[in-house]
Automatic annotation (TrEMBL):
Name of the protein in question: 3-phenylpropionate/trans-cinnamate dioxygenase ferredoxin subunit
Pfam families for the chain: Rieske (PF00355)
MF terms in GO: 2 iron, 2 sulfur cluster binding; dioxygenase activity; metal ion binding
Phylogenetic lineage: Archaea, Methanobacteriati, Methanobacteriota, Stenosarchaea group, Methanomicrobia
PROSITE patterns xref list: RIESKE (PS51296)
The keyword Oxidoreductase appears for this protein: yes
Superkingdom as given in the UniProt entry: Archaea
Required cofactor(s): [2Fe-2S] cluster
Tagged with keyword Secreted: no
Gene3D superfamilies: Rieske [2Fe-2S] iron-sulphur domain
Keywords, sorted A to Z: 2Fe-2S, Dioxygenase, Iron, Iron-sulfur, Metal-binding, Oxidoreductase
Naturally occurring in which organism (per UniProt): Methanolobus vulcani
PANTHER family reported in the protein's UniProt record: FERREDOXIN-RELATED (PTHR21496), RIESKE DOMAIN-CONTAINING PROTEIN (PTHR21496:SF0)
CDD domains: Rieske
Domain Rieske: 8-102
Length: 111
């Protein structure tokens, strides 16, 4: 994977359509990359409840629902919608040269 400073190449921008998600292993971290509209988001692929893979859940607009116990998270901020003090780690993303890059050192930074 190509790296520019702290930015790590995740996937080509045209690999995901609106409403799609893709689980990846980036430098040993289980990361879920999602596309909503024209924006890309990246978050941990583990629900904080029982570490169920969020990639197997459903995505509706900016909300992903965990497949195990229906916990719902906002992909923009990582907030659990029923108790905002619980969060999924999120990572900053950017598109460069038709690729989507993730900054794992920017946990919680959002977009």
């Amino acid at each position: 994977m190509k790296q520019e400073d702290n930015w790590i190449f995740a996937l080509k921008a045209d690999e995901l359509d609106n409403g799609e998600k893709k689980p990846l292993l980036i430098e040993g971290n289980k990361v879920l990359v999602l596309k909503v509209g024209d924006d890309f988001f990246a978050m941990s692929n583990k629900c904080p409840h029982m570490e169920c893979p969020l990639s197997k859940g459903t995505l509706e607009q900016y909300v992903i629902k965990c497949p195990c116990h229906d916990w719902r998270f906002d992909v923009r901020e990582g907030k659990f919608l029923d108790a905002e003090e619980i969060r999924v780690p999120i990572y900053e993303t950017k598109v460069m040269e038709e690729g989507v890059f993730v900054n794992l050192s920017m946990e919680g930074a959002g977009k």
